[in-house]
C-alpha cells in the first residue's frame, strides 16, 4: 500500500470511524487482543475511504483496550486507537501523566505564593 494516512473522525455508539487518505481501496485488518475483527467496513468517501470499526462489547469494560489498524497484505501498521474504561490501572502511563500534572500545579501554586509573600 502506498503512503496511506488515517485520520480519526469519531467514536460514537460503539462505532469507531476514520478516514483513509488513499486512492485505491485498501485491504485493511483491525486486530484486538491478537484476533482480527470481522465486521470492519470500508466505504468510498471524498478523497479516500471511510473506515468503520464496530467495537466489541468486551472492549467496553474496565481497563485499557488497544486496537491496531494495519494493511492485511503487508501487516504494515498505519493506525491505532485506545479505549480506557473504568478505574485506570495504577501503572497506566496516562494515570502517571495526570499525577505529574497535578504535582506540577501544586508546585506552581506554592512557588507563586512564596513569591507574593516575599514582595
Chart the SSEs and their pairings:
Layout: E1 5-12, E2 15-21, E3 28-32, E4 35-36, E5 41-45, E6 48-54, E7 63-71, E8 77-85, H1 93-118
Antiparallel strand pairs: 1-2, 2-6, 3-4, 3-7, 5-6, 7-8
Verbal overview:
With 119 residues, the protein is α+β, with helices and mostly antiparallel strands. The protein is built from one helix and eight strands. The strands form two sheets. The chain has a four-stranded antiparallel β-sheet, with no helix packed on it. The protein starts with a strand and ends with a helix.
Number of helices: 1
Spell out the helices and strands N to C. EEEEEEEEH
CA radius of gyration is: 20 Å
Approximate strand percentage:
35-45%
What is the terminal separation in angstroms? 63 Å
Q: Structural class of the secondary elements?
A: alpha+beta
Mean pLDDT level: 86
**Major β-sheet, in short?**
4 strands, antiparallel
Unreliable residue stretches: none
Strand order of the largest sheet: 1-2-6-5
Shape: elongated
- Helix percentage: 10-25%
Number of strands: 8
Could you name the key traits of this structure?
single chain; 119 residues; alpha+beta; 4-stranded antiparallel β-sheet; 1 helix; 8 strands; 22% helix
Summary, kept brief:
22% of the residues lie in helices and 44% in strands. With 119 residues, the protein is of the alpha+beta class.
